[in-house]
Amino acid sequence: VYHNGSIAIEQLQWLHDTLLAAEKANEYVHILSHIPSGDADCWNVWAREFNRIIERFNKMIGGIFTGHTHVDELNVHYTSNGHAVGISWNGGSLTTYSNKNPNYVVYEVEPKSMQVVDYETWIFDLEQANVQGMSGKPEWFKEYSFSEFTSDLSPAGLDSLLDRLAENPDLLQKYWLYKHTTARPRVENGCDRKCLSKTLCRLAVTVYDQRTRCKQLQAKLEANLPAVTTESPSTEASTTTQRPGTTEKPSGNTAAEIFGPHLVTIMIVLLFAAFPH
């Protein structure tokens, strides 16, 4: 694509022409794609032009549905003036990829405009299923409905939700937990300040190098997180999500704590031995 940009131009032109034909026919559409336009794996120039198309035809796009990331998430599309005009919904994946439970999503849409008005995510506990082995079947259960966060799933409604997530770190942690399908390894590792900030930012980015709304939200989140002081090293833990019923494990001595500066000397000696002059 980098070498021959005409491929991307032809693809986006097809999308524009198809949406224009649907608009003339008074139709509402859903767009299904693989990589979300705000993902690091999506070419920024393509994402920028894709978002211009979304802005132009936003009134007749009932929803944009993506994959690729394997997590249960969404992204709000904005105009160059900062107005929310679209939503990309990512349904997660049956493939666990890394540290998540398999999931699928059931979307509820308004019959005429096909706008998403709610959805529910279903998962099963992968570790429990592995323990059962071939003798048992996965026990699917509903993890949550998005209406737990808001009943207004319009672009403007979800833009307002992002502000509430920035103002309420506990609510943002809840979103992060569901994003990773309440998988034990994720929950036990928790989500610290940096993780929360990154999670919030991703919600507001649909062109990877355009982060105006992201920075606004991150500044608001920082103002609502507990202050970090040198006198209280455990303060950071107050912003970390832990799986219910577990306690934080005391950290053992690391190699650096045991050997101190001698560890660096050992590494240098080993490197020198490996590459003698």
Automatic annotation (TrEMBL):
GO terms for biological process, alphabetical = ceramide biosynthetic process; sphingomyelin catabolic process
Residue ranges for the region (Disordered) are 225-254
Q: Which GO terms label this protein's molecular function in UniProt?
A: acid sphingomyelin phosphodiesterase activity
Q: InterPro entries recorded for this chain?
A: Metallo-depent_PP-like
User: Could you tell me which Gene3D superfamilies the record lists for this protein?
Assistant: 3.60.21.10
Entry GO terms, CC: extracellular space; lysosome; membrane
Q: Where is the composition biased (Polar residues)?
A: 242-254
Cite the record's Low complexity compositional bias ranges. Answer: 229-241
Q: Which domain of life is it from?
A: Eukaryota
What does the UniProt keyword field contain? Answer: Glycoprotein, Hydrolase
The name this protein goes by in its record: Sphingomyelin phosphodiesterase
